[in-house]
Design goal:
Layout lengths: L1 H34 L11 H18 L7 H22 L8 H20 L11 H4 L2 H14 L13 H4 L1 H25 L14
Helix pairs in contact: 1-2, 1-4, 2-3, 2-4, 3-4, 3-8
């Protein structure tokens, strides 16, 4: 009976984590919409908000279809984007925003922590990430980079991140920053993929697969 009880507990943890993720994102969006003059819509041009909305959609989907967990490439990408957004904001952008407001705490700290815990703990039927998938995960950040540099700047909206704005730091620095970001995202992606590797049979975590 113990293995069965363990599986039920793991199902509970899986559902709890994902409900918390969705609730955190929705709460943050509602708070921004109801307390800020500009509302939430314009913030959707930022990578952070896009990544968090994507995460909320994915984990909400997973609550209604357990087979979503089989799509390890999609799940890993979601984790990567949220963690990248949270890491960059905490390291580089707190002085360029309103600081640690409740919505910022939810989107840049709480959600990244929850998706990381979910990735590590919830392993039901999860296969290993393929070696090439972290490379594919770069496509969305690259597409966002094009949006920031060639659409937002030229439309007069200005890139939402100063380190991607040639008018703020210069084109040479932007190029260097792009290279550093690519290395950081790729390294983090392979770090995430390493955690996804199936554990040896008989170990305690393997009972959660």
């Amino acid at each position: 009976m113990r293995p069965r009880r363990f599986r039920l507990d793991n199902d509970f943890v899986r559902v709890l984590l994902r409900v918390l993720i969705v609730a955190a994102v929705v709460t943050a969006l509602i708070a921004v919409e109801t307390t800020s003059r500009s509302g939430v819509l314009w913030r959707l041009i930022t990578f952070t908000y896009q990544a968090n909305v994507l995460a909320a959609a994915y984990y909400l989907w997973s609550l209604f279809s357990a087979r979503v967990d089989d799509r390890v490439g999609i799940r890993g990408a979601v984790v990567l984007y949220v963690v990248v957004a949270g890491s960059l904001w905490n390291l580089l952008l707190t002085d360029y925003s309103m600081g640690y407001t409740p919505p910022n705490i939810l989107l840049h700290i709480v959600v990244p922590v929850l998706v990381t815990v979910d990735w590590i703990v919830v392993r039901r039927r999860q296969s290993a990430v393929r070696w090439w998938q972290p490379l594919v995960w770069l496509i969305y950040p690259a597409a966002y980079l094009v949006l920031a540099l060639f659409v937002l700047n030229r439309a007069g909206r200005r890139a939402p991140y100063y380190f991607l704005d040639p008018d703020s730091v210069g084109m040479a620095v932007v190029v260097v920053n792009i290279g550093l970001l690519a290395v950081f995202i790729l390294a983090l992606g392979y770090g995430i993929s390493a955690v996804s590797r199936p554990r040896r049979a008989g170990s305690l975590p393997s009972a959660m697969s």
